[in-house]
C-alpha cells in the first residue's frame, strides 16, 4: 500500500491510498490526532448520498490493509491517539478483519471507534461488545420509507432500534455512554418536521447522544445540504425534545472531510481534488 495523493484542509488532511491490486481507498486525519480509515473498497449499502458506495462493493480490506492505513499516516503524524473505522465501506460487512483491527488498536494504545449502518442485527449485537471506544449508528431517518431510500441495504428502523434496545442495557455504564446515533440532514429528503419527530420518538427511549451532521457534497452528489437555518431549527427541535445533540464539528464540515465525501473511484479523483482545493 502507498499514499498516492494527499489534500490538506484547515483541520484535516485526506490521504488517497493505493493497494497492491491498484484499488484506491481514502483515510482522513482530523485535528492531527484522529485517523478515519476505510474498511472496504467501495460499499454494498449504496446510500444514495454517498460517493463511497456509488459503484457498489469492490472487496473487503484485509487486516494488514487496515493496519497499513494507520502505520502509513502515523509515520508522518506520530500523535495519532484515536482511530475511527468510518471511511469507505460498511465495517460490519467486514466484521472479522475490523474486529481484529479494533483489538490491534487497543494493543497499540490507540482508542478505536467505528460507524455502522447496522449491517444485520446479529453483527451489530456482536460488535457492540467489542472493546471499542465508541460506536455511532447511522440512522438518517425517522420513517421506514425514508430509511429504505437513504440507507437501502441495512436493517430497518424497527430491527435497528429493537436490537439497540436489547443490547444497550447489557453494556457497562462507560460503554453505554459511547453509543451514539447519527442523523445526516439532507434537504427535502429527511429534514421535515414529520421525519424529525418520528426519529425523536424512536431515539428518545434509548437516551443516547445524537450526532447531527451537516451534509458535505462532492461533484457527483445528487442530494443537497439542508440550509444552515434549517439545521439550527432541527437542532433546536431535538434539544427541546430533551435529546443530547452534538453538532457537526468544523473539521467535519470542511469541504474535504466527512461521511459521504470519500471516493474510491479513480475517475472521481481529479474532480475530488478540485473540490477540495
Ligand atoms: S454512507 Fe457508509 S454505509 Fe452508506 S454507502 Fe457510504 S460508506 Fe457505505
Question: Could you explain the architecture of this structure?
Answer:
- It is a single chain.
- The protein is of the alpha/beta class and 277 residues long.
- It is 34% helix and 21% strand.
- A ten-stranded mixed beta sheet has the order 1-2-3-4-7-8-9-10-11-12, with helices on both faces.
- Strand 10 (179-184), helix 7 (193-203) and strand 11 form a beta-alpha-beta unit.
- The structure holds iron/sulfur cluster (SF4).
- Residues 43, 45-47, 50, 52-53, 88-90, 117, 259-260 line the site of iron/sulfur cluster.
**CATH topology call:** TIM Barrel
- Topology order in helix (H) and strand (E) letters: EEEEEEHEHEHEHHHEHEHEHH
Radius of gyration, CA atoms, in whole angstroms: 17 Å
Number of domains: 1
Between the first and last Cα atoms, what is the distance in angstroms? 25 Å
Arithmetic mean pLDDT: 89
Structural class per helix/strand content? alpha/beta
Question: Ranges with pLDDT <50 over ≥5 residues?
Answer: 255-259, 264-277
CATH class: Alpha Beta
Give the proportion of residues in helices: 25-40%
What is the level-2 CATH architecture name? Alpha-Beta Barrel
Could you state the CATH homologous superfamily?
Aldolase class I
How would you sum up this structure in a few lines?
It contains ten helices and twelve strands.
Amino acid at each position: 500500500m502507498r499514499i498516492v495523493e494527499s489534500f490538506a484542509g484547515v483541520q484535516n488532511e485526506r490521504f488517497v491510498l493505493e493497494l497492491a491490486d491498484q484499488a484506491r481507498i481514502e483515510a482522513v486525519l482530523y485535528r492531527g490526532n484522529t485517523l478515519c480509515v476505510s474498511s472496504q473498497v467501495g460499499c454494498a449499502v449504496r446510500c444514495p448520498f454517498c460517493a463511497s458506495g456509488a459503484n457498489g462493493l469492490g472487496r473487503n480490506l484485509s487486516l494488514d490493509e487496515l493496519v497499513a492505513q494507520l502505520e502509513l499516516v502515523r509515520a508522518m503524524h506520530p500523535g495519532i491517539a484515536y482511530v475511527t473505522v468510518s471511511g469507505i465501506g460498511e465495517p460490519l460487512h467486514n466484521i472479522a478483519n475490523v474486529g481484529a483491527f479494533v483489538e490491534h488498536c487497543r494493543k497499540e494504545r490507540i482508542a478505536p471507534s467505528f460507524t455502522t449502518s447496522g449491517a444485520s442485527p446479529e453483527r451489530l449485537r456482536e460488535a457492540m461488545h467489542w472493546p471499542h471506544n465508541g460506536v455511532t449508528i447511522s440512522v438518517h431517518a425517522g420513517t421506514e420509507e425514508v430509511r429504505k431510500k437513504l440507507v437501502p441495504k441495512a436493517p430497518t428502523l424497527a430491527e435497528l432500534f429493537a436490537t439497540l434496545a436489547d443490547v444497550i442495557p447489557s453494556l457497562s455504564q462507560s460503554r453505554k455512554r459511547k453509543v451514539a446515533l447519527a442523523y445526516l440532514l439532507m434537504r427535502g429528503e429527511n429534514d421535515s418536521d414529520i421525519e424529525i419527530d418520528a426519529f425523536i420518538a424512536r431515539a428518545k427511549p434509548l437516551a443516547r447522544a445524537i450526532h447531527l451532521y451537516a451534509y458535505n457534497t462532492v461533484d457527483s452528489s445528487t442530494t443537497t445540504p439542508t440550509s444552515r437555518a434549517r439545521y439550527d431549527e432541527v437542532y433546536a427541535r431535538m434539544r427541546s425534545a430533551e435529546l443530547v445533540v452534538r453538532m457537526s464539528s468544523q473539521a467535519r464540515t470542511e469541504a474535504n472531510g466527512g461521511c459521504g465525501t470519500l471516493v474510491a473511484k479513480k475517475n472521481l479523483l481529479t474532480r475530488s481534488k478540485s473540490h477540495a482545493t
